[in-house]
Structure formats: C-alpha cells, structure tokens
Design brief:
The complex is a heterodimer of chains A (113) and B (112). Chain A contains no helices and eleven strands. Chain A has 113 residues and is mostly beta strands. In chain A, the strands form two sheets. In chain A, strands 2, 4, 5, 9, 10 and 11 form a six-stranded mixed sheet that branches. In chain A, strands 1-3-8-7-6 form a five-stranded antiparallel sheet, with no helix packed on it. In chain A, strand 6 (54-58) and strand 7 form a beta hairpin. With 112 residues, chain B is an all-beta fold. Helices cover 0% and strands 52% of the residues of chain B. In chain B, the strands form two sheets. In chain B, strands 2, 4, 5, 6, 9, 10 and 11 form a seven-stranded mixed sheet that branches. A four-stranded antiparallel sheet of chain B has the order 1-3-8-7, with no helix packed on it. Classes of the chains: A mainly beta (113), B mainly beta (112).
C-alpha cells in the first residue's frame, strides 16, 4: 500500500462547478500538507500549503486537512477552464530540512467551458 | 527574474550510453532536488543536495549520480542508461522548508 493515495481521474466538470480533489494517507506523522498544480508538459507549482488540521482559503481555493481521518481535500469554487491541470497532493513530517516530501500520483482535472 | 532551467528539454539516447541532464537555478537556493515522474508513481526523489559539495541519495537513486560544485547547478548523470530510466525528470530548488519548492520545466528522456 502506498503512503499517499490519490484518485488519478480523469475528472471532468463543467465551468463554474465546485471541484473536490482528495488524498488519503497512512503515515500519522505527516504534519505539513501541500497541493501542487501541474499544467501539461510543465513543472509542478505550489498552490496551497497547510500545517496540521484545519482549513486554509486562498481566493477560489480551499485546502482542508482532517488528520483524524488521514484525509486531505482541495476545493475549487467557480471552476475555470484555466484550472484544467493535474493536481498533486504532497506531505511531509517535518518542515526543517527534511528531504522526504511524499507525493500523490496526481488527479487530472478538465474544466469544460 | 530568478528562475530554474533544465536542459535539454527532450533527449533520446541508447541503452548503455552515459547521459547528463543539466539543472540551473538563479535564486541562490541552497537546496536542490532531482525527481522522476512516471504514470502510476507520481514524483519520486532521485538525489538531493543541501549545498556545495553535499549530495544525498533519494528513494530511487540506483543508476544515477549528482555532483554539486556551485550553488547554481546540480547536474544529474545516468551512468549507463537503461530503458527503465525512460521518464520525465524534474529539477527543483528551495531556500529551506518544504512549502517553497520550485520546479523546473522538466526533461523528457527516452532510452531506446
């Protein structure tokens, strides 16, 4: 079993819909959680970063962490065609010089105009 | 603007050949990383460096090596390319801490 599980999709939704992307994990020591966005044939770029449990909002994006369930989510409101990309979750146990950043396999999202 | 670049962007080589992928960053970051990305596996860490003359093995380091002679560059060498090393390779850098990792555009390597 992988440490981080992420549904690969593909996921297609109409423009304006709310999108929910999720990851589950098995390592209870994970404390720092990230979402990266990767456009086709580009490198990943950091989208959201959260520490421990709770919600974090940035514009149309909300990251949610439920450590008791070992479950993290990324919500995209009022989805736009420009949100079409692969979304990777990532997590780690330490924020100080720890090289072990564990990634999910990514969910490919398409927003249909 | 500061950036991270990789070259070449595409490379086709033959089994057994030595290949070097270049990574150059102008942020003056101490930390640099090499990942490979494959369907079904996500991003996997190959090697990383926390500064000049420092190199460390990641989870899939067999068949790869790196050297760090300055802050800006971390070249990745495939000593004897194998078909299993066909992949997309990403270089990344960070000033420290996990939340600010910057990725390059990637190199698509095909080993025939």
């Amino acid at each position: 079993q992988k440490e981080v599980e992420q549904d690969p999709g593909p996921l297609s939704v109409p423009e304006g819909a709310i999108v929910s992307l999720n990851c589950t994990y098995s390592n209870s020591a994970f404390q720092y959680f990230m979402w990266y966005r990767q456009y086709s044939r580009k490198g990943p770029e950091l989208l959201m970063y959260t520490y421990s449990s709770g919600n974090k909002e940035d514009g149309r994006f909300t990251a949610q962490v439920d450590k008791s369930s070992k479950y993290i989510s990324l919500f995209i409101r009022d989805s736009q065609p420009s949100d079409s990309a692969t979304y990777l979750c990532a997590m780690t146990t330490s924020n100080f010089g720890n090289e072990k950043l564990t990634f999910g396999t990514g969910t490919r999202l398409t927003i249909i105009p | 603007d500061a950036e991270i670049t990789q070259s070449p962007r595409h490379k086709i080589t033959e089994t057994g050949r030595q290949v070097t992928l270049a990574c150059h960053q102008t942020w003056n970051h101490n930390n640099m990383f090499w990942y490979r990305q494959d369907l079904g596996h996500g991003l996997r860490l190959i090697h990383y460096s926390y500064g000049v003359q420092d190199t460390n093995k990641g989870e899939v380091s067999d068949g790869y090596s790196v050297s760090r002679s300055n802050t800006e560059d971390l070249p990745l060498t495939l000593e004897s390319a194998a078909s299993s090393q066909t992949s997309v390779y990403f270089c990344a850098s960070s000033p420290g801490g996990q939340e600010k990792r910057f990725f390059g555009p990637g190199t698509r390597l095909t080993v025939l």
